[in-house]
Amino acid sequence: MRWSRLRRLVAPASCRLSRGRPVRATLPLLALTTTVLLASTLLLYSSPEEKRVSIYSNAANYGLPVLDRNGDEYIGLLELFEPLGAVSAKANGNRWKFRYYDVESEFTAGQTRARIRGIDFDLPANFLLENGRGLVPLSCLGTLMPRILGGPVTFNQNSRRLFVGNVAVHFTAQVSKTVPPKLVMNFTAPVNPMIATEADQLRMAFNHEAVVAPGSQALTFDSKIIPSASFQENNGSAALVIAATAPLMATFANNGRTIVIEPVPQAPAPIQSTPPVPRPPSTFAPPIVAGSPNPRRYFAVVDPSHGGEERGASLSAQLAEKDVTLAFGRRLRQELETRGLATLLLRDGDTTMSLDQRASLTNSAHAVIYICLHAASEGEGVRVYTALVPADTENRGPFLSWDAAQSAFQLLSQSAGSGLVTELQNKQIRARTLITPLRPLNNITTTALAVEISPPADDISELNSPAYQQFIASAIAAGLANIRDKIEVRQ
Ligand SMILES: [Zn+2]
Fold this sequence. Notes:
Elements: H1 2-10, E1 52-56, E2 61-65, E3 67-69, E4 72-76, H2 77-81, E5 87-92, E6 95-100, E7 103-108, E8 113-116, E9 119-122, E10 128-130, E11 133-137, H3 141-149, E12 153-156, E13 161-164, E14 171-175, E15 183-187, E16 194-198, E17 201-206, E18 218-220, E19 228-234, E20 237-243, E21 248-253, E22 258-263, E23 300-304, H4 321-338, E24 343-345, H5 355-365, E25 369-375, E26 382-387, H6 410-426, E27 431-436, E28 447-453, H7 466-482, H8 484-489
Parallel strand pairs: 1-13, 23-24, 23-25, 25-28, 26-27
Antiparallel strand pairs: 1-2, 3-4, 4-11, 5-6, 6-7, 7-8, 8-9, 10-11, 12-13, 14-15, 15-22, 16-17, 17-20, 18-19, 19-20, 21-22, 26-28
Helix pairs in contact: 4-7, 6-7
Bound molecules: zinc ion.
Residues 15, 17, 305-306, 312-313, 321, 374 line the site of zinc ion (ZN).
């Protein structure tokens, strides 16, 4: 059973952590003096340009496909209302009866005249019935939906964004006079945009949030480095594009209600200690990520595994591993910081990062401990993994091999892992340690653990419950705080 668990984590179908990479020769001491942080390409979010409409409501935020029929745009009425409440529909010949709670509507295929709540309603184009599925013209939603819902609906047809009730998320944006300047954005509700950076701009895409334009679509700031931003809406999504003359990074605060954009700090002066921090053998551009390292020493680097285009395991139909690890990582950071343990969260948004990037950023942060987070639908409680460094990849001379970078820290990691497990067991949490060839653990030059969280007693939805996440995050943070002396003293 242990083996099947182990193998599932090492080579899972959808959780794409790879085995230790193929053995490579030792690395030359290259690039130690080059800057680590300034390169700047991150995968841009792209989606196939399927026509979509986004619906924002207190019940749910969701998107639906838009269908082109006879030169008009249509949408399925049942799908549109389903997330909003109890619906049913019945086709009878040409007639289609639709019910939302106790509100009845009747439509006729090939006709514009409909009846809602017993009153005539004229559609701008014919109602369509396809295999029992009722389709209405998109352009009528702003008037049709309020009639059925009995409440206000705002529909921006150009951007295909529909707001049911008072759900819009507003924001303010101001650039500080500090050096370097910071663009501080405060939102009226938590947001989790997709962030992409290029040399001269940072783009935040709000695919699931009801973020609306500030007073004007274009914002200008009194700053040479961050001169302007523009709000764009298109095909069911909104984006804020921030222009800049320097590479930018974003950090989140205030539970996702505040986003701070600032220039990426210059890399700290290289630390000429031995052994040198290895760089990955491939050429790659470290991304601009939320919470890039600064010269201050962190206690912990917390790495929510997966992210962006890489979803990790599909824990359930609705639940992607990348979202669980991010939510969990944020809680763990908060729990650690509450205990006075400075923590760097490697990704604080839905960003794509490679394993090499994660390892490089961690190694340049010089933290006491690295913890990467995974989530699994099977098993129970918490499993704590340490690296199994490939035996045939040895460090030679003063240079560290990328694949065996962890070898000098293996014993420390194992000791930290068993210390943490004991702490968790003291809190009645099922926990155990395992050793596995799991990247990027073997590339990390400090104490390194992978923590995999499973739901309590097979209820997968609990993985996403704030209470369970908080309970486990708090237990891990308390455990690390308790063994802190043990970990720190030996480094
Ligand atoms: Zn995973």
